[in-house]
Every structure is written in structure tokens, then in C-alpha cells.
Give the backbone structure.
Amino acid sequence: PPSCFFIRIIFPLTPSLVHTRTHAHTMPRYTTYLLPSAPISALDEVMRVVGQKGSKKEGEPDVDVEKVEMKYTLDASLSTFRTLWSIGHIKKVVDENGGVVNHASVLGAGSGVIPDGVDDLSDKEGVVGGLLSSLPASAEEWNQHRLSKEEVESYWENGYLSNVECLSEEECDVLMKDLTALSDPVHLHPGRCLFHEVHQNQSGDDSAVLFHALGQWRITPAFHDLIYHPAITTKVAQLLLKSREIAPVRFWHDQLFAKPPHHGGCVAWHQDYSYWTRTKPMQHITVHIALEDQTRNNGGLSYIPASHTWTRNGGPLPLLDCNFGDMEGIKTILNGEERAAFKVVSANLKKGEAAFHHPLSVHGSYANNSEYWRRAAVVNYFADGVMSDTDEPLLQGIQAIPKGVQLDGKFFPLVYSPSQHSIPPPSS
């Protein structure tokens, strides 16, 4: 029918591609991409990336694409896939045998096939000795990590609490070593298949590189221990509920971000819950941990104070850019009052410091124009009792939790329990 568009592009398999593209072995030989209502302009961008001319003529209106079928291999497949995923139009990927392919497997992750010698650390409960030898043995030891009442109130007033000392330099160095290994595009880490997602450069622009991945806690003992760190979870328990009650805390998912010197990409202004509406109620928190010093010039984290009150029809602001690239795009959807209040505050986190922010707090980070790397780990949590609001998998590579069912199990472990640790609300 006129509303459908079919295209088949065939690329030769050349020896040079085999040797120069490290992800080649992860690609299915032939892949079919199915897209829901992708505009022709999106297809034009895909074809531009793989060196073909666009199909949309000047002055011609956009036409919805029901299915785009492409047959190719290696370099062209990888480039095309990254572009398709970044513009948010992929519905599913089907290999030549009709099998559904996890999108992350194309980039070396989420294939569901775990090589011999690789342990999935989501099978292990509690710390495993990678970063922590043990957790506190008494309530008094846990209490040493509490926030003051003033800090809790500052969080709820501004929507974030920054420059909180959480990790030692030694702990940061251990995590940095793991991050470096996990992000290496040449010598692929054997545990990379356990990532839920991995984007070697999510921007797709070589002049604005942004490494971004989800799921490192499954891969290395140090990142596994990080999600249980008492300097983090104790504070999270104090901040999750507006009632100021101490909440039982479950792990949601973690992330890695790395921006290289001189050409590190930005992360556009956004609210985290815009990506998380597949869960409810909104009782979430994000913890951003600087593994090295951050400044605005090297692409450090920034906030818009009090933006956690900005909503649309009771929900978050619309999601504009899954690729994070349009730094100022959010301003097109703000009202006059919000635009007037859009005052950027740079957190300027030091190595080992963390920022805790509300799921509606508008935050982002500019490009890295400095001579230094900017690398960070992010751990996201929610209050015990949060439910799935979809019948689709909540993360790539895990089984779906039916809509209305509480999130628990090995992928969403309980990392803090008030009844177990007996921590009262802060008095000062």
C-alpha cells in the first residue's frame, strides 16, 4: 500500500572490514529491522550513514514506513543499527532464520549467550568482595552514613543534593579500572554480553563521543558491590519518600558514562522518569558518582534547581531525544515560567563525590572540551513496592514482569531494609 515502503540494501563482505571492525563477530549475517511508523526522514539518515543517497525527494511529504528490510553485513550493519536505535524507531530485529535479536547483542551485549568463564553476578546476593569486604554489622555503623535533616530538606527543596562524599579515591580507582576495560572497543571484555545496553558512542557523531552502558553490576565484582555500598544506600533510604519515612530500597539499574578529552559529547537536559514511566508509582532516585573531578568544561553534571516540580498532566516532561544530543531541545517544551526559572547550576563534583537527584529533576551535562576524561558511574534505585506498568521487558535481556506486579527477584535486589538496619529518621 502507499503508506508502506520497502528497501533492500546489499553490501559486500570485505577482508578489511573483518580486521578493522571489532564488533564484527557479534553481527548476524543478515538482519531485518522492523520499524513502527518511522518517517522517511529517519530512513534518509540511515542511508546517509551507510553512504547511500536518501529516498525522499525535495518537497515530498514524509510517509510512514511500516517495514524497512535491509540485507547486509558487518560495518554497514553496525552503523545503520546504531543510527536506527538512536532515533528511537526500532521495534525489533529479526535474523535470517526469523529469530528475534536483542538490540544490544549487535554491540556486544545482551545476547543471552554467556561464554564459559563469565559469571553473571546478578546471581549473587550481597557484596562479593570486589569493592567491599562486608557490610556494616550494627545499626551504629550504618548510622555513620546518614544525611542530616538539613541535607534531606535541601534535597526536597531543590530536587537534588550534590557534592556528597561517598567513595574513597582507592574505590574510585578500582571502578575506573573496570570502566576502562568494559568500554574498550578493541579488546572486548568477555562479560560485555551481560550489559542490558551498550553504546560505544551514543551520539553517532565522532566529534561528540559519549560511551553509555547499562548493567555493569552483572559483570565486575567492584560494580556489583557498589550497588550495596552503605554510603549510598543509607542516604537513598532517607530520600526516596516525600513523607521523609525511611524506605526499603531496591536496585533499579546502573549506568556508565565516559566522555573523552576534547570531543566528548553532551547529555541533553532531561528528567529521568521520562524514561521510566514503565514503572509506577514514581518513587525513584538517581545517584551519580564522579570517578574523577568534574567541571562544566569537561562535561560535568549540572542541574536546574526546583525543576522536580515541572510536570505535564501529572507525569514527566515529554521525552525528546533518546540520543541525548540536542542539549537545548527541552526549552521548546517549557512554559514561560519554567524558561524564566531555567538557571544552570554546575555540581562540580570531586572524585568520589555523588549527587542524588529526584526522578523529575532536570539535569544534563555539556560537551567535554577539556584535555581530561570525564567518567562516572550511576546507580538508580526505587522504593520497595514499585510495580511494572508494562507487559514488555523492563530491561533488555531479562524476562518481563507483568503489568501491576511488584518488581523483585535477582535483577531488582533489596539493597537496604530499615527493619534490618534499625535506622531512625535523622534528628539533626
